[in-house]
Design brief:
- With about 325 residues, the chain is α/β, with parallel strands linked by helices.
- It has one domain: P-loop containing nucleotide triphosphate hydrolases (Rossmann fold, 3-Layer(aba) Sandwich), CATH 3.40.50.
- The protein has 9 helices and 9 strands.
- The chain starts with a helix and ends with a strand.
Length: about 325
Amino acid sequence: MLDPRTTSQAAQISPFLDLDRADWAALAPSLPTPLTETELVQLRGLGEPLDLTEVAEVYLPLSRLLNLYVGGTKALHRVTSDFLRERSESTPFVIGVAGSVAVGKSTIARLLRELLARWEHTPRVELVTTDGFLFPNAELERRGLMSRKGFPESYDRRGLLRFVSEVKAGASEVVAPFYSHLAYDIVPDAQITVRRPDVLIIEGLNVLQPPGPGHRLAVSDLFDFTIYVDARTSDIARWYEERFLKLQRGAFANPNSYFHRYASLSEEDARARASEIWRSINEPNLLQNIRPTRSRASLVLRKDSDHTVSSVLLRKL
């Protein structure tokens, strides 16, 4: 049996405040939900039962907290500028969102973009995924990395670091490569342009990675706030398989899809293929690279088996 005094002491020395769903929701009980059901459907990912209650109890309080952080950062910039006797403009507040494949981080990033844009002082919010900084498939093939797509070494980390550095330096316009999930590759001559937003959200598998060997700076060092989306490995594996089956019946049917070869598989064979991809690629990446960065986050969202958030860990200041 655990000694309650030991448990209490462990909680006290943790760098995080551990808030259950009810306590977290109670922090912002009177905030009106600004999204309609139609807007929520457009934001929802495959197999994610996100509803307005979840938005009101989890993501609306989170958006308010982030809005306060942005305001606090701008206030700090003002007093620092006064101290230095200069009048430089504040730079975008950058938020990193990390987590496994199929855990729902892309939906959360899209949702936060919409919620933050409706708060005062943060009307201009842009979202960039790190998929655009994957090496093109031809380069991955040349390096023998196609079977490790999504692992840290499959990204142009210098390019990503340069992109975020320019954003944080206050550049008026910064461009990022464009990635097509249909083609499963970088699209030549296509790009995403970021023009000094109030907030920039960077979403990706490995955005919380520390500097690699021989590097003094990681992209995570440039973030103002970071979020890790967490869940049990067994739940994420099931979500991945369910999503694979939905894509097989939908997007994979497109002849232009990179995964069109899976469209004609039986359900049994499709499940087997999804399980094989999970075990050989996504699970090792989660266990070796992604989950070890969880403790670096400013905030951790813990999900239950039904995709709902059960608790929130917020790093103490």
